[in-house]
Design brief:
The protein has 222 residues and is mostly helical. The chain has nine helices and no strands. It has a domain of 107 residues: Cytochrome Bc1 Complex, Chain D, domain 2. 21% of the residues are buried. The structure holds heme C (HEC). It comes from Sphingomonas immobilis.
């Protein structure tokens, strides 16, 4: 009778462990199946960089690894409307020489800024430029800059670094310690006191034994 009960208990425990295992495996599979990106990016359409998705790396961190030469390449997208050389003419957009750090909508040579941009005030610091270039329309609704924006943070950092090299040369902001790294650093001290306690190991053994109905759990029956 006892043996029989043990067997039943063993099988029940085994079934639980197996179900747990399946749930874990299922979870992993399910997570892995999720596509990294939903849908396809459409050329020429502004990606909705402002909302949703993973939080973007801070601009300070992106700037720390940005490439001004790549920024010069990206600036070709801007060059249809902007010059960046010292004393360059205003076109559809204002000349951008030394714009980094300059007052928003001050410009050079009396460029006629929109009221929308003039109303923003403040200075073109790195944060402001990053927000502006993500989506000019969102940053200053009603702006005259009919440019969708650069959805990739890396592209914005490259072009901002390039702009900074054209007449501004402001010191770059210090990169922020990444949030994931900070969490990692906290884990070892928190789990260290628990580690010497051998509790974790036996529980793993128990599960693996119970998972095999022919294993130790069923042995008393012989
Ligand atoms: C289709 C033309 C066009 C394109 C392309 C364009 N801009 Fe502009 N830009 C403008 C106009 C027009 C304004 C003035 C906006 C306003 O007054 O609302 C402006 C304003 C700006 C300003 C503010 C200048 C100041 O002195 O306040 C910056 C910075 C800027 N653009 C950067 C860029 C960058 C960088 C790119 C390329 C990634 C770019 N723009 C692409 C037309 C354009």
């Amino acid at each position: 009778m006892d043996n029989r009960n043990n067997t039943i208990a063993g099988w029940a425990l085994g079934a639980c462990a197996a179900a747990l295992g399946l749930a874990i495996v299922g979870n992993v599979l399910f997570t892995a199946e999720k596509p990294e990106k939903m849908g396809y990016p459409v050329e020429g359409v502004a990606a909705d960089a402002g909302g949703g998705g993973a939080p973007e790396e801070p601009i300070a961190n992106l700037l720390a690894k940005a490439d001004a030469a790549k920024g010069a390449e990206i600036f070709k997208k801007c060059a249809s409307c902007h010059t960046v050389n010292q004393g360059g003419a205003n076109g559809i957009g204002p000349n951008l020489y030394a714009t980094v750090g300059e007052g928003v909508a001050e410009g050079k040579g009396g460029f006629a800024f929109s009221d929308a941009l003039k109303a923003k005030g403040g200075k073109w610091d790195f944060e402001a430029l990053n927000a502006w270039l993500t989506s000019p329309r969102k940053y200053a609704p009603g702006t005259k800059m009919s440019f969708a924006g650069l959805s990739a943070g890396k592209d914005r950092a490259d072009v901002i670094l390039y702009l900074n090299s054209e007449g501004s040369n402001l010191p770059l902001p210090a990169p922020q310690a990444g949030a994931p790294a900070a969490t990692d650093a906290k884990v070892p001290p928190a789990s260290a006191p628990a580690a010497p306690g051998a509790e974790a190991k036996p529980s793993v053994e128990n599960v693996s034994d119970a998972a095999k109905p022919g294993g130790k759990a069923a042995e008393p029956n012989k």
